[in-house]
Structures are given as C-alpha cells and as structure tokens.
Write a structure and sequence with these properties.
Shape: globular
Number of helices: 5
Structural class: alpha+beta
Strand order of the largest sheet: 5-6-7-8
Strand content: 15-25%
Radius of gyration: 20 Å
Helix content: 10-25%
Order of helices and strands: HEEEHEHEEEEHH
C-alpha cells in the first residue's frame, strides 16, 4: 500500500514535493509473552515498529538496522520544511540513520502486567546490545511492593536473546544498574520538561478509546 501511494504521487507528478512517512505507535503481542494485543509489556514485538521514509532528499532503497525512536520524526520533517524545533532535546535526522551515533531509546506503558499485577507503569531502555524493563511498583508474585522498594527490573541480551526470554538481571547486575540509572535520569529530565497541561478527550473520544481497548470504563474524564 505504501508503494501504491508512491505510484499515485508519481502519476500526479508530486513525487519531488512530497515526503511520505509510514510508521506505527506500537506492535501487537500474539502470546509471545503470554498476552494478547498491546499495552501489557514493552517486549520487542510491541515496541519495534515499521518506519519508512520516502521523498525528495531521501536515499532510495536503503534499509538500516540502526536503533532509532519515532520521537525524532517531527524534527526530521521540520528539517525538510526548512525549520527547526529548538524545544525538542537531541533532535536527530532520521533520513540519514546510518550517519547517527548509537543512542538509547526509551519506551513506556501505563497498562503494564508484572508478576500477576496489572495496570502498572513499566519503563524500558534499549541500546544496541541490551534492553532493560523497569517496573517502579513491581513486586514478586503474590506480594505487594514494600514502601521503600526500588521496584523490579529485567535485562535482556538483544544479540543472543532477540525474543527476550532469558532475564539476565541477576547474572549481569552491573549492566542492569548502569541502564537503570540512565533510564531514571532520562525520565527525570522528561518530567522536568513536562508542561503539566492536561487536556480531556471528551465523551466521544473516551468512548472511542474504550472501544479499541486503550482505556477502561471510567478511566478518563470529559
């Protein structure tokens, strides 16, 4: 379908003045880790999504395995529009991914499932080599978290364990600790940049979100 769009743009002679970006906000879990749909975790099948750029100034037929985040789509499009977004920290040009220095990617969900407890926030950090998942209020099975608990985390080796089945947090505590610190610092910086503005979606929007499974009944206000 992306090809059909590009073919139509060519037919309309709009190829040289149109930038196409195709991506997704998340993948879907099909029981790889015991769940269906999305939102319960941050595993690879949920956070690795397609990203296609096409248009003038973008190399044709180039594929890359470089780790990037779709939060950099906006500054990339701004560049093609001849403007800058100075308020965005660490803007990166995704139209030339192989020229980028390796960088970690942050992920999160507010609907996480951790050791039998549901609807917990889970945060993740992924580097070229490792992925760490951290549940600040996570606890062992059938236990409530202690008031001073740092939460729980899991560590996965992306090269030897691409399906994230083997938690190495206990075997590689130094790696887990370093990634956890980097993740916590990134979250702190993001919190300090937050404006604090909260905008409701209204009754129709809430019904739509509930219908597609993003929220549960009564979770949002008009």
């Amino acid at each position: 379908y992306v090809g059909e769009i590009l073919d139509k743009l060519s037919e309309l002679q709009l190829t040289e003045e149109t930038i196409i970006v195709f991506t997704s906000d998340h993948g879907e879990e099909l029981l790889e880790h015991g769940h269906l749909a999305h939102g319960q975790s941050l595993h690879e099948e949920l956070v690795r999504v397609p990203l296609i750029f096409a248009g003038p100034g973008i190399p044709v037929g180039v594929r890359t395995q470089r780790l990037v985040s779709n939060r950099h789509i906006a500054p990339t499009l701004a560049k093609f529009g001849g403007v800058e977004l100075p308020a965005i920290p660490d803007p990166r040009d995704l139209s030339a991914p192989d020229s980028l220095t390796p960088n970690s990617v942050i992920t999160s969900t507010e609907q996480g499932w951790w050791n039998g407890r549901h609807r917990l926030p889970i945060f993740g950090i992924t580097t070229e080599e490792w992925t760490l998942h951290w549940a600040p209020s996570g606890s062992p099975w059938a236990e409530e978290p202690a008031p001073d608990s740092p939460g729980m985390w899991r560590l996965f080796d992306r090269a030897s364990d691409p399906h994230e089945k083997n938690d190495l947090a206990e075997q590689r505590p130094e790696i887990a600790a370093a990634l956890l610190l980097e993740l916590q610092e990134a979250l702190k910086e993001a919190s300090e940049r937050a404006t604090g503005t909260k905008i409701g979606v209204g009754a129709a929007g809430a019904n739509l979100l509930e219908g597609i499974g993003y929220i549960e009944s009564g979770e949002t206000e008009d």
